[in-house]
């Protein structure tokens, strides 16, 4: 082999040995990421903290509620009666669903006759005629006076001459003639007047003595009959034309009447009174809510918010169904099938806008409050040990820890009121441990839940 070729082979071999030695030496100082993590062991533990604060603490319960009027009424009518009445039929509809109902306004027309609204607590149960007496007559007089047709001159509760005039004027303002109390009233009135006139002439023509005395007696009878006919004659208010509502404002919830349609058991449904909110509480919540507690009302649909108070909480559970929570809903025993909760009624502090009627809204009930500022920590900072002591753990500035026994109080919004036991120091700004986290993950000292 030539000398130059042997020299090249020797050089290459020496270089290979050198590189191999360097590779073996480097393995003593370089390792894979997996091996490095395994050799490093577990990371040092870290903690999450939150500051001790002073704040007014409120415990709240959030639920849904339906905006509705205080009371709801189904309006019906038998329609006109009499020999020429025929089968009643709806001839006009003057209102629509959602419309406001005012006293003294016509709602519907049935066979050409009006059905109007007035304010009164007594339901209509009879026709009100001249000569009638009773609380329902007094209610009619008061309701007519409220819309501008007073009946001064008649005794309260007696349908007399002044009430007749008020009724006649009221019907005229609606554009209708009142129904006469007697179909042949005018004929009877003319006959009674003629008879009284004849008796007056008989007294004048009678000879003194027995004949004249008898003529006078006949005249008194004729005059009494005339007074009775006059008292009974005049306008009446048929029960089929009148709907009393105990309070206004009122609104049309639903309308079943249709022009040309028959008169059924229900023509329309009217809700009366200021708007309230009705909801339902579960058995675990009912003990926390009492009448008089404050409530925040929020309509997510319109953004409207309002304040209110709890008016009532039902003791028993209300049966499920469209009327659950409504006045008069059938109570159900706890655990009974179909029971949905304890009916809750919230009264707004100020009248709610009419646009909220029938909306589903959010109710936030202030179940309890500390009223004044108290010492609070996040609920996650409080723990109970095997010794039955409730404690919080404070992280000291030097990294040390100190357990402090506390007595918990009211809780709400993720916080709980704490009172140190035995005068142990715990002050606003102290850092209490609320949890742990791996090092390098979360910050070692975080604030608690935002206020």
Q: Count structural domains.
A: 4
Tell me how many strands there are.
23
Largest sheet: 6 strands, antiparallel
Q: How much of the polypeptide forms β-strand, as a percent range?
A: 25-35%
Are there runs of 5+ residues with pLDDT below 50, and where? 3-13, 15-20, 22-29, 320-339, 439-451
**Cα shape:** elongated
Tell me the radius of gyration.
44 Å
| End-to-end Cα distance | 91 Å
Oligomer: single chain
Overall structural class, as computed from helix and strand content, comes to alpha+beta
Q: How confident overall, as mean pLDDT?
A: 82
Number of helices: 6
> Spatial order of the strands in the main sheet?
2-18-22-21-20-19
Helical proportion?
10-25%
Secondary-structure element series: HHEEEEEEEHHEHHEEEEEEEEEEEEEEE
Description:
The protein is α+β, with helices and mostly antiparallel strands. The chain folds into four domains: 79 residues, conserved putative lor/sdh protein from methanococcus maripaludis s2 fold (Beta Barrel), CATH 2.40.420; 105 residues, Efflux pump adaptor protein, beta barrel domain (Elongation Factor Tu (Ef-tu), domain 3); 127 residues, no CATH class; 48 residues. The chain has six helices and 23 strands. The protein has a six-stranded antiparallel beta sheet with strand order 2-18-22-21-20-19, with no helix packed on it. It has a six-stranded antiparallel barrel with strand order 3-12-16-14-13-17. Strands 4-6-7-10 form a four-stranded mixed beta sheet, with helices on one face. It is elongated and about 130 Å long. It starts with a helix and ends in a 13-residue tail after the last strand. The N terminus and C terminus are likely disordered.
């Amino acid at each position: 082999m030539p000398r130059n070729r042997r020299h090249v082979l020797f050089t290459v071999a020496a270089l290979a040995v050198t590189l191999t030695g360097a590779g073996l030496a480097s393995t003593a100082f370089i390792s894979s990421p997996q091996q490095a993590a395994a050799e490093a062991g577990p990371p040092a533990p870290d903690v999450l903290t939150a500051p001790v604060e002073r704040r007014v603490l409120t415990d709240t319960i959030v639920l849904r509620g339906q905006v509705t009027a205080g009371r709801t009424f189904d309006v019906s009518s038998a329609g006109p009666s009499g020999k020429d009445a025929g089968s009643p039929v709806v001839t006009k509809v003057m209102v629509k669903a959602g419309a406001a109902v005012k006293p003294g306004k016509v709602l519907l027309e049935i066979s050409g006759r009006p059905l109007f609204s007035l304010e009164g607590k007594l339901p209509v149960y009879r026709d009100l005629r001249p000569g009638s007496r009773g609380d329902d007559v007094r209610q009619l007089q008061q309701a007519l006076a409220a819309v501008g047709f007073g009946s001064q001159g008649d005794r309260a509760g007696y349908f007399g001459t002044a009430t007749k005039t008020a009724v006649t004027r009221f019907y005229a303002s609606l554009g209708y003639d009142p129904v006469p109390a007697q179909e042949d009233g005018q004929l009877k009135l003319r006959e009674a007047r003629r008879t009284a006139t004849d008796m007056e002439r008989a007294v004048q023509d009678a000879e003194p003595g027995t004949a004249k005395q008898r003529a006078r007696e006949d005249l008194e009878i004729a005059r009494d009959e005339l007074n009775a006919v006059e008292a009974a004659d005049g306008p009446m208010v048929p029960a089929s034309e009148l709907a009393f509502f105990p309070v206004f404002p009122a609104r049309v919830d639903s309308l079943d009447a249709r022009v040309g349609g028959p008169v059924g058991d229900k023509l329309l449904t009217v809700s009366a009174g200021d708007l309230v909110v009705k909801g339902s509480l579960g058995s675990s919540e009912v003990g926390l809510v009492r009448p008089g507690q404050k409530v925040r009302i929020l309509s997510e649909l319109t953004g409207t918010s309002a304040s209110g108070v709890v008016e009532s909480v039902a003791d028993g559970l209300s049966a499920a169904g469209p009327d659950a929570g409504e006045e008069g809903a059938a109570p159900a025993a706890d655990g009974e099938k179909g029971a949905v909760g304890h009916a809750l009624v919230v009264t707004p502090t100020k009248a709610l806008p009419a646009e909220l009627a029938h909306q589903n809204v959010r109710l936030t009930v202030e179940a309890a409050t500390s009223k004044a500022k108290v010492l609070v920590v996040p609920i996650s900072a409080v723990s109970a040990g095997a010794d039955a002591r409730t404690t919080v753990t404070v992280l000291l500035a030097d990294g040390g820890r100190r357990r402090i026994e506390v007595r918990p109080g009211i809780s709400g919004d993720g916080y709980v009121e704490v009172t140190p036991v035995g005068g142990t120091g715990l002050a606003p700004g102290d850092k209490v441990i609320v949890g742990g986290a791996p090092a390098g993950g979360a910050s070692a000292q975080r604030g608690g839940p935002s206020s």
